[in-house]
Amino acid sequence: MANGQFYVIRHANSLYNSAWIGFDRATMSYDSINYNPELHDASLTAQGKKEIEMNRAGIWRTLPNLKYVLTSPLRRAMETTHLLFKDHPDAKSFVVVL
């Protein structure tokens, strides 16, 4: 395998992340968030989508000569990948893998 670089980008803010805002351990159970079926495969929030829009040009400059983009099959990760790379100037030269 040729030498190369590997970058990890965390998904943008999701409904799951937002559910923890205001979490009070004294009155709430961790399970109420961790095992909530509506949050397991959570979408990005409007704020998360805005974060991507504001930062993607800078990320593109940081990631020249992409060959592969690997992403988790969770919705928040796939949405982040799609929004981050859908208009990338070299989108036809790299492969997105789930």
General description of the model:
By secondary structure, the protein is mostly helical. Helix content is 42%, strand content 6%. It is built from 5 helices and 2 strands, in the order ααααβαβ. It has helices at 15-19, 31-34, 37-40, 46-62, 75-85, and strands at residues 68-70, 95-97. The protein has a two-stranded parallel ribbon. The protein is elongated, with a radius of gyration of 16 Å. The mean pLDDT is 92.
Give a quick rundown of the structure.
With 98 residues, the protein is mainly α. The chain has helices at 15-19, 31-34, 37-40, 46-62, 75-85, and strands at 68-70, 95-97.
- Choose one word for the global shape: elongated
Going by helix content, strand content and strand pairing, the class is mainly alpha
Distance between the termini: 21 Å
Number of strands: 2
Strand content: 5-15%
As residue ranges, the low-confidence spans are none
Radius of gyration: 16 Å
What's the helix count?
A: 5
Write the layout of secondary structure elements.
Elements: H1 15-19, H2 31-34, H3 37-40, H4 46-62, E1 68-70, H5 75-85, E2 95-97
Helix pairs in contact: 4-5
